[in-house]
Design brief:
alpha/beta; 9-stranded mixed sheet; 36 helices
């Protein structure tokens, strides 16, 4: 007997009949769909995956708590790597896939694949397709056309990125042929890498809870599958579905087969081939007409099992358990729909993502609704995913009940009409937080929020509804997809003007944010952390966990007094079902109070759907899904009653009363409660409760709060404090606000009271600002450094230093006014002083009219010089005229001289006389006298008129005279780049004389370059009182009083604390005392001496007219030479006679003179040594530039010997190419320590406003001491384009 004959004899008659029917179906069909599951691979020696580790992987036998679904999970690719016997690394997960890869690639497809391929080529079969959940690739390996294959779970013969950097996949090519350590069951080879980035690579297989599966290839195969269905529908042929080895463990294939068989648009026959009899028939679970789908994130069951006190993802496990409990409780209560129980399907989703993966999973479920129509969705867990799925649910008409999505925008009934919310909205959370801020007297915060709908929703509420209550100083966005912030976390928090950090993020993201804060060292005493979700306290180390002490969190709680009475009976039964569940019992919390509120909301979400379905069924209307090829074309029908009962829900759930708002939104009506907790020693300590119906925090116990900030027991302020900070201060010299004290100079030493040190050890500061800093530091307890601004820097340029990103200062203190232009770039503290402007001009002293007032135009030295010139001219005229005139009547020479004086006097005053001059020298002398007289008379007349006019007029009375033009606008001095030009241009005119600095006001007034100037009244009075008494004076009343504040950078974090400190100083009267000490100066009174000095300044002095007199003397010298020339014969004759008479005496005298001269020259030569020789430049001692106020030393012993007693130095000063004029002062001196003496010389130069160079030189003599052969030089001002060169001229021994 043949084997086939034996086989036929063993076939059961009933089975034989079924085989015959199946053969007939194969021969009569026009299309065949092969659907295959894990049983299809048994003939090739592969496992079926039924039961714990059955036929899968030997190492799983060592782990009774791990099954196939645990290993076929993408979480293994995201954990640490390494060869570990604890089996907690990615290498253990890759060993599982290496085993499967080797098993699948080494196995040979059995004969069944060949038979299927032959049936595909039957003449009656027009179309064929293979739908398989197997990842072994045996259909394609056996020769089946890949375009006629859909591997719905992917294929192990392709790889993808662990965290897809792109939607590409590539062939495995033995990448999973990895060596495994038999002792640890871990891969010891290098793990496969992504072909497009540096991450790991994984099989392109759809695993359990897989949200990162790249479905590019599956989508292409799905399109081919849809074409196959469309072709069948188009030809209206008979379809034969042959299901091969599809079990119930993973029912994907069974559901697809049954869905195709039940499709009303297809004429299908169904053959199910399965060795297990219980799997041959359609399971009752899949025949139910109604089911509810729950979307819950994946969780780490190890952490739930071990960390039973608030594990990282306990809430999602709790929610799953109570979802199942609600379905089970409905069956216990015999709540049925058309005599069929309501069933539930759990879909595991990823924690991250925008909802696309969930939509894809949901679409797959809707396409599998052969017997169980989806009529309700519970979830998803995040607002982002809910928004994405909400539009889909609204489109197909399925109610979506939220247990954790809190974004307020989901309330919109227009965009999300089928969205219902059990959990309280973020509007209530924001209101609770605002009330908490008011309770703590906080008004600012730094907001850290996630880049998702939950984070942006919180930001929107705070900005739009509570912007008057909470000012968000800084925003930090955390992107959970890449685990990074949009800005530097440390820098953002440190520069923030608030030390309250509000973290608006879910639990998982909060954990990541807190971990980053730990890594950045931000959990110090500088901040108060306030969370909107739990902070996981099971951090890697005890030290990290302790760093969370002092954290505050506002958490939702189930409070019966707020939400209404809780249905305790329903709650007890739900918890009992969970506790008695064989799957969940070991995970039940040790205390009912530890059950997460979101899980409670999940139960009530399911229960609300169940009650609405039950009522709708009692009314005879059962909702069902009208299926279509594409899930977006599906539609829930017969839903009117269902929707009505859902909108009008009013039931007692385990979270309280469940009732929706109906018209406004589908939000829950009942109030919400939040608990304020404080983390202390890894525990949550209850502080207070907020109930929305009370609108306030109650049962507040502040004394239990631990504040980390500044180790304080009292509620901290919300703004950063200066205490312990280091502040860099720049000051601008402006007495009496800032008085610079030079340690090396006694100048102004009497002003330097209570000086403060600066970074330059040679200088300190005194004045109003120094005392102000000292008092501010006493109250704020900060440390500081002070730097003095360069005198050449303008106020605006110094202020601009704080607008730079790389600024070197934190404050600028002086008489810096607050102006609108400056506020565009910097900020100010509250004002600490109000300072007015005032006008300064030259001191005005009237000249009294007396008997001698006529002499006032000239000084007495000028009058004496005029008299001396008249006498000199008279004598000279007499000398010129004497030879040509006879003495009448025995007149004397005195009379002749007197007549000459009269002639001179008449010429000076331009008076005609009868006196005839007979010689040309006399006439020339008189002509000079005549010109001199005209000039002197004109000058006298003009000066006298000016004095009398000024004496009759009145001085400048103030700003009104400047506005009215009493002073030429070009003679009004205004300090450029300060606050004065802004006022002057707006209120007077844009025409003025710019001054480079305030210090330039005083010399420009004294040298009459300007007639008036405008500056701060306190500064002007201080300078006049101490330096320019009765030379300058302020006139008129004070005007334009404006505020002076501390200049600080924009968004300086300590601004508010600074404002509080300054305001407190004002309230305590400390600022008033500083004002009395430094700013209330009185103008000095006039004195006779000062008045005479001023009057002398108005008179014509000798130095002014000395050139005129010198010109006259030169003229007379010329006249004398002419006289000698005319009388040369007489003079020569007289000289000849004298020589003849005294020839011998003269010779002797000449010999004596020559001898004496030679001796004298010899002596002088021995006492003085000169370094100056023709065409040789003298020795250069050095060059001094006006770029420092410190003393500069030049050694003299390099050229002068130690025997020298006096040295001559040529001082050569050069200046030019200047934009304005300025005076420069120079002091030079030598010292002799043995004698205790010094020899000091003063030289004053001038820097001219010109484009060429100017030179000035002078020979100075100094005492020389060999014990200290040094020449010291210093100056009191800076000057650009000016330098001094020092040359050695010579020396003497005496």
């Amino acid at each position: 007997m043949t084997a086939s004959a034996d086989f036929k004899q063993t076939i059961d008659p009933e089975m034989k009949s079924l085989v015959s029917q199946a053969a007939e179906l194969v021969l009569n069909c026009e299309a065949i769909l092969f659907t295959s599951g894990a049983g299809m691979g048994v003939g090739s020696g592969l496992g079926t995956f039924r039961g714990v580790a059955a036929g899968v992987w030997p190492p799983l036998l060592k782990h009774p708590n791990l099954d196939f679904s645990d290993m076929s999970n993408p979480k293994w690719f995201e954990i640490k790597q390494g060869n570990s016997k604890d089996h907690d690394t990615a290498n253990f997960g890759y060993a599982f896939w290496a085993y499967r890869y080797n098993a699948y690639t080494s196995a040979t497809p059995h004969i069944g694949y060949e038979i299927a391929k032959k049936w595909n080529h039957l003449s009656n079969v027009k179309h064929a397709f293979s739908f398989t959940s197997n990842i072994d690739g045996h259909w394609i390996k056996s020769g089946w056309d890949e375009s006629l294959t859909l591997e719905c779970h992917g294929s192990i013969h392709y790889m993808q990125c662990v965290k897809p950097c792109c939607q590409r996949i590539w062939e495995t090519d033995n990448a999973l042929n990895l060596q495994v350590d038999p002792k640890t069951d871990c891969v010891i080879d290098a793990l496969p890498k992504c072909s497009f980035c540096t991450r790991l690579a994984r099989p392109n297989v759809l695993m359990f809870g897989d949200g990162l599966y790249v479905d590019t290839r599956s989508n292409e195969q799905s399109e081919n599958y849809n074409k196959f269905r469309a072709n069948i529908q188009e030809m209206k042929g008979r379809l034969l579905i042959i299901e091969l080895g599809a079990g119930t463990a993973v029912p994907t294939v069974r559901m697809e087969s049954e869905a195709m068989y039940k499709d009303p648009e297809l004429a299908a026959d169904f053959i199910r081939i399965n060795p297990l009899k219980e799997h041959l028939f359609m399971n009752h679970f899949y025949e139910n007409r109604i089911r509810i789908v729950g979307l819950f994130p994946q969780y780490d069951n190890t952490s739930v099992r071990i960390l039973r006190y608030y594990p990282n993802d306990a809430w999602t496990f709790h929610a799953r358990a109570l979802f199942r409990a609600a379905i089970s409780l409905a069956n216990r209560y015999e709540i049925t729909i058309d005599k069929q129980p309501i069933t539930g399907t759990l879909i595991e989703t990823s924690g991250e993502g925008n909802g696309f993966t969930e939509l894809d999973l949901l679409c797959r479920e809707t396409k599998k609704t052969g017997q169980a129509d989806i009529v309700g969705i519970v979830g998803p867990s995040t607002s982002t995913k809910s928004r994405f799925l909400g539009t889909f649910a609204a489109h197909i008409g399925i109610p979506m009940m939220s247990y954790a999505a809190t974004n307020a925008e989901l309330d919109d009934p227009i965009f999300y009409p089928t969205f219902y919310r059990i959990v309280p909205s973020d509007l209530l959370l924001a209101e609770a937080i605002v009330e908490l801020f008011e309770n703590f007297n906080w008004t600012t915060c730094t907001l850290i929020f996630t880049k998702d709908d939950y984070g942006y929703g919180g930001l929107k509420i705070l900005l739009e509804k509570y912007h008057l209550n909470i000012s968000i100083k800084e925003r930090l966005i955390f992107d959970p997809r890449f685990d990074k912030f949009n800005a530097n976390m440390n820098e953002t928090l440190r520069k923030s003007q608030s030390q309250i950090i509000l973290v608006w993020a879910n639990e998982n993201h909060s954990r990541k944010i807190v971990q980053r804060a730990i890594d950045e060292g931000l959990l110090d005493s500088s901040f108060v952390w306030l969370m909107t979700n739990k902070v996981h306290i099971n951090l890697p180390s005890v030290q990290d966990a302790q760093k969370l002490d002092g954290f505050l969190a506002v958490l939702p709680i189930i409070d019966p007094s707020s939400t209404g009475d809780i249905n305790e009976d329903l709650q007890k039964e739900a918890f009992d079902i969970w506790l008695n569940s064989s799957e969940d019992e070991s995970y039940y919390p040790r205390d009912d109070s530890l059950i997460d509120p979101y899980a409670i909301y999940a139960f009530d979400a399911v229960w609300s759907l169940i009650i609405a379905l039950n009522k709708s069924a009692h009314d005879g209307q059962i909702p069902s899904m009208n299926m279509s090829t594409h899930c977006f074309d599906n539609q829930l029908i017969n839903k009117d009653k269902y929707e009505m009962y859902l909108k009008n829900s009013k039931l007692w759930g385990i979270s309280g009363m469940v009732e929706f708002r109906k018209n406004e939104s589908n939000d829950r009506i009942s109030s919400a409660s939040y608990e304020l907790v404080n983390i202390q020693s890894t525990e949550y300590v209850h502080i207070a409760v907020w109930r929305s119906n009370d609108k306030k925090w109650v049962d507040f116990n502040r004394s239990r709060i631990i504040w980390r900030i500044n180790d304080s027991s009292s509620v901290p302020v919300d703004y950063p404090q200066l205490k312990g900070e280091f502040v860099r201060i720049m000051v601008i010299e402006a007495p009496p606000f800032v008085i610079v004290c030079d340690r090396n100079s006694s100048l102004h030493s009497d002003w330097c009271l209570r000086p403060l040190e600066t970074i330059n050890p040679n200088f300190s500061i005194s004045g109003f600002v120094a005392d102000f800093i000292r008092r501010l530091q006493e109250t704020s307890e900060f440390t500081f450094s002070i730097e003095i601004a360069e005198p050449s820097q303008s106020y605006n340029s110094v202020v601009s230093l704080l607008s730079r990103s790389n600024r070197n200062y934190d404050m600028i203190l002086s008489n810096v006014r607050i102006t609108s232009e400056r506020l565009l770039n910097v900020a100010y503290s509250v004002p600490f002083h109000e300072e007015p402007f005032q006008v300064i001009t030259r001191y005005n002293s009237e000249i009294p009219i007396t008997l001698f007032s006529c002499f006032y135009p000239f000084t007495w030295s000028v009058w004496m010089t005029i008299l001396a010139l008249i006498v000199y001219s008279g004598v000279l005229i007499y000398f010129f005229e004497y030879p040509n005139q006879k003495i009448e009547n025995g007149g004397s020479c005195v009379k002749s001289v007197f007549l000459g004086v009269c002639r001179a006097l008449c010429s000076v005053f331009s008076v005609n006389t009868d006196i005839r001059l007979t010689t040309n020298p006399s006439r020339l002398t008189v002509l000079g006298l005549y010109a001199l007289g005209i000039i002197l008379i004109a000058t006298y007349t003009a000066n006298l008129s000016s004095v009398l006019t000024l004496n009759r007029g009145r001085p400048i009375s103030g700003i009104d005279d400047i506005k009215n033009g009493r002073v030429p606008f070009s003679r009004v001095g205004i300090v450029a780049n300060s606050a004065v030009p802004d006022y002057y241009i707006q209120n007077v005119l844009s025409d003025y004389r710019p001054l480079s600095s305030p210090e330039e006001i005083y010399p420009r007034l004294l040298d009459r370059t300007i007639d008036a100037a405008i500056w701060d009244a306190s500064v002007l009075k201080f300078k006049i009182d101490r330096e320019y008494c009765n030379q300058l004076s302020v006139v008129g009343s004070e005007f334009f009083r404006s505020s002076i504040g501390i200049v600080i950078p924009e968004k300086w974090p300590f601004k508010k604390d600074l404002d509080v400190r300054v305001s407190k100083m004002r309230e305590e009267g400390k600022l008033d005392q500083l004002r009395v000490d430094w700013l209330e100066s009185t103008q000095c009174s006039s004195s006779d001496i000062a008045g005479k000095f001023n009057n002398q300044n108005k008179q014509l002095s000798l130095d002014i007219v000395s050139g005129l007199f010198l010109s006259f003397l030169i003229l007379t010298a010329i006249a004398f030479i002419i006289h000698l020339w005319y009388n040369r014969s007489t003079i020569m004759h007289i000289c000849w006679q004298i020589v003849k008479r005294c020839k011998m005496k003269v010779v002797i005298l000449l010999i004596c003179c020559v001898t004496l001269t030679m001796a004298n020259n010899s002596t002088q030569a021995s006492l003085y040594v000169s370094f100056i020789t023709p065409k040789i430049v003298p020795f250069l001692l050095g060059t001094f530039r006006f770029d420092t106020l410190e003393t500069v030393d030049f050694p003299l012993d390099v050229i002068f010997p130690s025997t020298a007693r006096r040295v001559d130095v040529i001082v050569f000063m050069r200046s030019g190419m200047n934009s304005y004029e300025a005076s420069v002062n120079l002091w030079l001196w030598t010292e002799c320590p043995e004698k205790g003496t010094s020899d000091t010389k003063f030289k004053r130069g001038h820097r001219y406003n010109q484009v060429a160079y100017a030179f000035d030189s002078e020979l100075l003599e100094f005492s020389y001491c060999s014990s200290k052969p040094t020449l010291h030089i210093t100056t009191d001002n800076y000057a650009n384009n000016v330098l001094v060169e020092l040359y050695a001229a010579g020396y003497s021994h005496v």
